[in-house]
């Protein structure tokens, strides 16, 4: 036996690691709260646990590889043809497939930055080049700058709205202007993982936008508003050629029987879903108002989280949160994302962050 090890791709040395939200550190006897992963604090919707229990009885069998019943339910819910739908292991699974079908070595994949951290990871894995276009000072997409950054090598553009981690949205009018400037052979993905939490009447509507633009597709997930984060099921709505490519690159049997059953049951519980989301939006509004009263300039969030910039005080803020058994999500010293959770969790966060509030009339960096 020689001392050699398998030769792996050089790309791995340049690959940023995906940093999942960590659980609370347990430094306190207080009830732990995890506000670091944008999870829904509510239990599954009515009928979902029963559907999961029924589906679990057949776990010795492979799932329906085409998930026909879920595709039918989604086609009816969104009034789209069945062959315009592709399923995946959460929207992030579909995100990886999108890059696989559109970009490779020598190609460019564009997205705003900061935005969803999986974008550069999946791009680099494919061998393509990530192109990061900085957000505006107000934490929104700079679509004019993104349009100017398009080259003959651009193959794929991600638009995350509401944007993770800043919570800001792209307006429909500005999206339309941007898309008018994008070449028709460049695929544009509107990533709407948090769209159910949006209340801005001027925000872009991904599915309506896709209907008349063959190079536009939409990603959505059951992980956030629907509360199925552990089951990993998302879907894409795209025109047939793109949807077919996504199905071709899907992991066989990737969406389990349990996930399919839970997603269908969740779609049937739309009234309860809307009520649940409304409670989280009310709580988000309360948290944002409290932060404003403390002196913070908070980007108007249309998601289930808020975004604050602490700069060189980030480590101290994280330590303070850990000291009260609270987990939040830092992005280096760029900012901290805090999920809207249970009322008690939000109150505890507000008590901690008050100690870091900017001085009155000071120049605020976040």
TrEMBL record:
Its cofactor is pyridoxal 5'-phosphate. CDD domains: AAT_like. Residues 34-351 form the Aminotransferase class I/classII large domain. One of its GO terms (molecular function) is pyridoxal phosphate binding. Residues 1-43 are annotated as: Disordered. Residues 25-40 have a biased composition (Polar residues). Pfam families: Aminotran_1_2 (PF00155). GO terms for biological process: L-histidine biosynthetic process. Keywords: Aminotransferase, Pyridoxal phosphate, Transferase. HAMAP family: HisC_aminotrans_2, Phe_aminotrans_2. NCBIfam families: hisC, PRK03321.1. This is Unannotated protein. The lineage of its organism: unclassified sequences, metagenomes, ecological metagenomes.
